[in-house]
Specification:
Layout: H1 2-16, H2 18-41, H3 56-62, H4 67-70, H5 85-92, H6 100-111, H7 131-136, H8 142-145, H9 162-171, H10 178-181
Helix pairs in contact: 5-6
Length: about 180
């Protein structure tokens, strides 16, 4: 009889930790689900957060606005440039004026205060790169910048290092002269 009681006590001891193990397992499962959902809701690979959200996907893909509408300098300047607020106001003087971010944009414009955007693409200082030369030769912007038309927050598609540029020049049968980029 005591042997039976001892067996029952051993069995009870084995099962007394099961609820705690089950709770830990459920919590780990919930944590895993949250991490999976978090990655879907807030995907990695987004570009830097900007002071005023701007979706290239909406403006370029959905609204079919040409890159040249905003980046007017790209055809005759070394830099593509960030459009001045006046360019935004051309449309947003009439379109979705009451949207909070557009109101913030208007405040900056009315007060003459610039918006300090987070830079996305970098070319080293010792490299000379002229956007206009590439645009005038018909090089698609997406070749270097990726499919910006589908980006809500722009992310750098490539790291602009010499190997990337040289390979593009080879593929395009362009010059490999060092002084083209290094002056």
């Amino acid at each position: 009889m005591t042997e039976r009681v001892d067996n029952e006590q051993e069995l009870a001891k084995k099962f007394e930790n099961r609820p705690a193990i089950a709770v830990v397992a459920v919590l780990l499962l919930l944590a895993l689900i949250v991490l999976i959902l978090f990655d879907r809701l807030y995907p990695h690979g987004l570009g830097p957060r900007q002071p005023i959200p701007f979706s290239h996907r909406v403006h370029v893909h959905v609204k079919k606005i040409s890159c040249l509408m905003c980046h007017t300098q790209v055809t005759d300047s070394a830099r593509a440039g960030i459009p001045p607020l006046q360019t935004c106001i051309l449309c947003h003087d009439r379109i979705i004026r009451t949207f909070p971010y557009i109101q913030d944009l208007r405040r900056h414009y009315d007060q003459g205060k610039p918006i300090v955007w987070e830079r996305v693409n970098w070319v080293p200082e010792f490299v000379y790169f002229n956007h206009s030369v590439h645009v005038q030769r018909g090089i698609d912007c997406g070749r270097c910048h990726g499919n910006v038309a589908m980006m809500d927050r722009v992310v750098a598609a490539h790291e602009f290092q010499m190997g990337f540029c040289i390979q593009c020049h080879r593929d395009s049968h362009a010059t490999h002269d060092c002084f083209t980029c290094h002056r």
